Amino acid sequence: MDAVRKRPGMYVQGGTGIDGYHQLLTEIIDNGIDEGLAGFADEIEIVLHAGGAATVTDNGRGIPVDIMKSKGRPAIEVIFSELHAGGKFGQGAYKVSGGLHGVGSTVVNALSTYLDVTVNKHGQLHHVRFEKGVLVQPLEVLGATPGDVKWSTKVSFHPDPAIFKEFDNQFDYTRIRNRLRELAYLTGLKIVIRDERTELHGGEVKEEIFHEKGGIANFARALVTDDSKLLYDQPVVMRGTHAEVEVEVAFIHANTYASDNILTYANMIRTRDGGTPLTGFKTAYTRVLNKYAASKNLIKAGNPVPSGDDLLEGIYCVVSVKVGDPQFESQAKVKLLNSEAQTAVNAIVGEKFAQFLEENPKIGKTIVEKAAEAARARDAARKARDIVRRSNPLENDDLPGKLADCSSQDPAESELFIVEGNSAGGSAKGGRERRFQAILPLRGKILNVEKAELNKILKNAEIRSLIGAIGAGFDGKGEEMRFDLENLRYHKIVIMTDADMDGGHITTLLLTFFFRFMRPVVEQGHLYIAQPPLYKITVGAQTKNNKGVYLFTNEELKEHVAEATKAGKKYEIQRFKGLGEMNADQLWETTMNPETRVLKRVSIDDLIIANEIFDALMGSEVAPRKDFIRENARFAEISV
Predict the structure, then answer these.
(1) DSSP string, 61-124
(2) What is the sign of the dihedral through the CA atoms of 300, 304, 309 and 315?
(3) pLDDT tens-digit map of 599-632
(4) What is the average pLDDT value for the chain, to the nearest integer?
(5) Of 118, 179, 217, 329, which is least packed with CB atoms within 10 Å of its CB?
(6) pLDDT in tens, 559-590
(7) Strands of 467-520, DSSP E
(8) 585 an active-site residue?
(9) Which of 116, 313, 420, 615 is catalytic?
(10) Does the pLDDT of residue 508 top 90, yes or no?
(11) 315-322/261-266 β-pairing
């Protein structure tokens, strides 16, 4: 346990930051999910308490409380205090489990200020308590189980703030509920989340229930947020077992340009980099579709033959496998390595998809026609490939905003600031640290890539300058248009726009571009949004030691004004309507100096939510955009 507390990064995904903090809750939730997968539980409840604690209950079998002969101690104490002692190993192990090393419960215990476990078993409530991994209350019987207790295991814990110093010790409700919704689709379990932190929800306790009886088919369907774009009504679903690997696949096609909306799961764990199940699916899918198109003469003579990417354009797919001994690339579990999973997916999709196409020729023709259209678009865009492959793009006079590059050749320390217009660009160039900060001014708003075809996107001057400056290509069509993260010239890409409606729109356009065509930049944590101040308030006379305070919200301004008024002091307020109004020193001090600036890192925790947001904000349908703005416009301000 001491080893876990000294080196938490070796035992928990995300280390001591926000990811590691949430991983503790994930580990406890996964124990309940494992009970559900084994057929012993059908309901899990998660409660977020005020102060940073959380409780997870499930109605499975209950953690064993009997004495382990080999240890001479109750099993419940061993499971939470010894690494590799979980129920997923040895006799009675789960047939399918998301666990990799069996250290989950023990690690959560070690990294928490306290951990309480109560088990409803044999008609009695059994309880143990740990503090910082140390057993302080050995197994005790609290008494007979009350009639209203429906759960079998209850685990309450509080992540230790001494360990998670980088985070503010508050669970992110949205992040957690997105994962729970995902699990509900994949498992069919009833999952309840209740947030008792009433101060976050207008004085109310917030509760949501997820029970997705439609399963994986509804999951694939939910990835498409605009019904009008669907090419057919119901998802294609394929299930089967091959060599003891359970496979479940569902997909549906839409009239979009995306080809990477394929989510893969191994034992309910999202494998972001895919691995063997993804390879198996793509191999079988493209093989079957190519064979079907050829047998039905669906590709006209003289037209380009669809590539693998063309065949996958517009697909929204979920691939889920269950394997007895999952082998992941790392503890982060982003890629499954089991070769038997690839074989199983390949075999089942190959058989079931071929059968589906023969039984549904109309849908088969629709899918092939979509791929043929993608092939024609790729062929038209081929002429533009030099734009994304030029050996030295920064010497091209075509760039709409002149890149002021940094002198450093080390991408790890280099930063690219994408700024709005020449005015802000001038201040940024004057205020930056030239050694590691580059400035790229853009002329106005870039193209909305959510609505545009690929060849039009590649002709846009601002898009070309972004691709050229970043230097890693972009995800277009075919091998000649691939985004390669290894060639990224800057490991921090910062969007820096005015804090007004126009600036917000430009930010959204840029986010849409990165999400659709440079998604690894977002997934690997390289994209940031600068947070320039809205105000500067100086209370009393401005002196060398009283240069004023920069404020980022109206609430902060109100607080400072109230304090100054109460103290009877005069104050002066400066409102920044745009970055161009700041001089170079102010911009450096408030927005660019690594010691004092505030940057928000952009992340994609949930592909469904991300797709919904970008479709709502940037798609062609007006109604979803109005609904989204109405529900989320909590930050609206009046410029003065």
Answers:
(1) S----SEETTTTEEHHHHHTTSTT-STTSSTT--SS-S-SSS-HHHHHHHTEEEEEEEEEETTE
(2) negative
(3) 888 887 655 565 666 666 665 555 555 554 444 4
(4) 85
(5) 329
(6) 999 999 998 999 999 888 778 778 888 888 88
(7) 492-496
(8) no
(9) 420
(10) no
(11) parallel
Give me the catalytic one of 351, 405, 502, 581. 502
Percent of the chain exceeding pLDDT 90 equals: 50
Topology annotation, domain 390-532+600-632 = Rossmann fold (3.40.50)
- On the 0-12 / 13-18 / 19+ scale of CB atoms within 10 A, 11 is buried
Residues of the chain with CATH 3.30.565.10: 2-210
pLDDT for residue 297: 94
Alpha carbon 178 to chain centroid, angstroms: 9
Instruction: Return the structure tokens found at 344.
Output: 């199983």
How far apart are alpha carbons 385 and 402 in whole angstroms? 22
Whether domain 2-210 has CATH 1.20.58.100: the reply is no
Choosing from 260, 500, 556, 605, the catalytic residue is 500
Whether residue 1 contacts residue 106, with contact meaning beta carbons closer than 8 Å, is answered with yes
Q: Which helix (H) or strand (E) holds 190?
A: strand 190-195
* 135: nearest Cα among 59, 91, 74: 74
Give Cβ neighbours of residue 8 (< 8 Å, ≥ 6 apart): 15, 16, 20, 107, 110, 111, 163
Residue 631: what pLDDT? Answer: 45
CATH no. for 215-383: 3.30.230.10
Domain with CATH 3.30.230.10 in the chain: 215-383
Class of residue 547 by CB neighbours under 10 A (exposed 0-12, middle 13-18, buried 19+):
exposed
Q: What does R_g of the chain's alpha carbons equal in angstroms?
A: 27
Q: Is residue 524 a contact partner of residue 412, using CB atoms and an 8 Å limit?
A: no
- Please give the structure tokens belonging to residue 418: 């994408």
Q: Is 502 marked active-site? A: yes
Q: Where are the alpha helices (DSSP H) in 247-336?
A: 276-295, 308-312
Q: Let me know if 2 is a catalytic residue.
A: no
